[in-house]
Amino acid sequence: MESRRVPTVRAVDERPSRHRAGEPVRAGIPEHGRIPRYYAVKARLLDLVAELGEGAALPAERELAERFGVSRVTLRQAVGELVLEGRLRRRQGSGTFVAPPKLVQPLALVSYTEGMRRQGVAPGRTAITIERLAADDGLAEELRIERGDTVAHLERVLLADGARVGLESTYLPERRFPGLVEEFDPTTSLYAYLRERRGVVFAEAEERLETVLATPREALLIGTNPALPMLLLHRVSFDPHGVPIERVRSLYRGDRFSFVTRLRADS
User: Which InterPro entries does the record match to this protein (predicted)?
Assistant: First the structure.
């Protein structure tokens, strides 16, 4: 009689799970069950943050260290991670406070202005540079122009309800947009200007997102710590004929921004 192998059935682990719905799997706890002390403190701090609510001040460092039964060094490590993640915010001379929710910018063909207004946030910009430059090899290739051709360059600090949150550099072919440097008000929406004054239609874009650290100059302009992770977006936008309109490099504070997009299956 022919025999066959019966698959081994693994027993279900009926021990209480440490993974709560909606959290990262097992809430960051390694399989061996041992976690760094600072991480346990961080988890308890997150519960406290949820309890206190946006804008509330964190209790004094000494009080928290005593409450959690850890050293102040361990507590500082846990608090420092939550600051980097944008859950807490330090104010010089005032203390540490529960941060507001992150701003959500869509990965779509909408301007920064539109993205902020959808969230009830007042957008703004401070002009740093508006000039003409000669295109180098990389820029010429992306904009499909000749090396050395003139481009308009706009560098602006991005504001959200008056606070500095990012830095944006935009390059546009001068031949296609003559007089833009003199005519455009850099404190306003470039997309609105191009649509309404130049008749430009944005049809599609190629966009790349990565994490970087700001240069000392960028950190100074944005008003952030150079060690804070930043989100870098590199975009080339195209009109309905596939002709490049602009190249944009946008740098956003990682503690203030997240990005969202909707994915669809290819037809």
Answer: Bact_HTH_transcr_reg, Chorismate_lyase_/UTRA_dom_sf, Tscrpt_reg_HTH_GntR, UTRA, WH-like_DNA-bd_sf, WH_DNA-bd_sf
